[in-house]
Amino acid sequence: MTGDMRCVALDGTGGPDVLVPGTCSMPEPGHGDLLVRVRACGVCGHDLLARSGALAAGHGAVLGHEIAGEVVAAGSDVEVDLVGRRVALVQRIPCGRCDECAAGLTTLCRQGPGFYGEDVPGGYAEYVLASPRNVVPVPDTIPDAAAAILSCAVGTGWRALRRAGTAPGDVVLVTGAGGGVGVHAVELAKHLGATVVALTGTAAKEKRLLELGADAVLVSPDTRAVRDCVRDLGGRRGADVALELTGGPTFRTALRALGPRGRLVLIGNTEPGTLPLEPGLAILKELTVYGSAHADATDLADVVGLVASGAVMPVPARTWALEDASAAHAAVERREVTGRAVLVP
Q1: Rounded Cα–Cα distance for residues 4 and 126 (Å)
Q2: For 140-177, how does the pLDDT look when each residue is reduced to its tens digit (9 = 90+)?
Q3: How far apart are CA 263 and CA 240, in angstroms?
Q4: What is the rounded end-to-end Cα distance, in angstroms, of the chain?
Q5: Deepest of 15, 16, 285, 292, by most Cβ within 10 A of its Cβ?
Q6: 3-state class of 139 per DSSP?
Q7: Contacts of 324 (CB under 8 A, 6+ apart)
Q8: pTM higher than 0.85
Q9: What Rg do the C-alpha atoms of the chain give, in angstroms?
């Protein structure tokens, strides 16, 4: 397959209006590659940072790493059985050769083709290249818009909760709970048997978070309100696990809401900057701070199974046509979206 395809590319960095519809060359699968027709692509907060210039994406970049579609062609040395399959993609393509990949630490691989939307063209287009190492088959029972967000919006929280050793009976605090990762982290924590306290900056998202399993929703709370809520719900001195999804605005609150030997998991960077760790507090409470990266193929396969079984329901809030990517970004930026915005080519 050759020729041009529709895409939305960055005309510089800045506001949503720098996302410009146009055409670009269709990728051709080489040795070890798969060609995937994009059926849906989620709009992540990472995309907004890249568009604004806070991350490594410049003029002409095609964003989008939350991708689902259909394998339509394969290069040499690739299983032809994958052609024709519906798949969801992991956002990085691991090399499969380095020490990290050999140890199963594929999220730490830095020798593969890279991160969709930054190092390689992403899913704001009709086609992308993939690899057998970053695709997971998706059953027909999962719609395209839901499949697109399984890796990032759902899998990121799944990986983080497992990283923290979340167990039944734990009290889990989720900051930025109204966003794409946050709403699914609430669902997943509840699935694991936790009591869930959701923090959001938007009152309009409270009802939906309660429907998704939150035991309490706090809107722009101070630290004392969070601690009081955790004590009332869990009957203990603080949360067992805090998933920190926003960075600067809520980091201090999440840290101080933890109980003795609590676990803080850093995931989001929607507000990058210096974070006040407070070493004295961490020492006295014997806190553990984890970093948790994006989902790998194993995490994605787990999530596909959870969704296929009905244990977790993805929340694609609204879909936009590919050419309306700027409108989707604007809606996310205005916090009008509970869950994930999704582009459909």
Answers
A1: 10
A2: 999 999 999 999 999 999 999 999 999 999 999 999 99
A3: 6
A4: 18
A5: 292
A6: coil
A7: 343
A8: yes
A9: 20
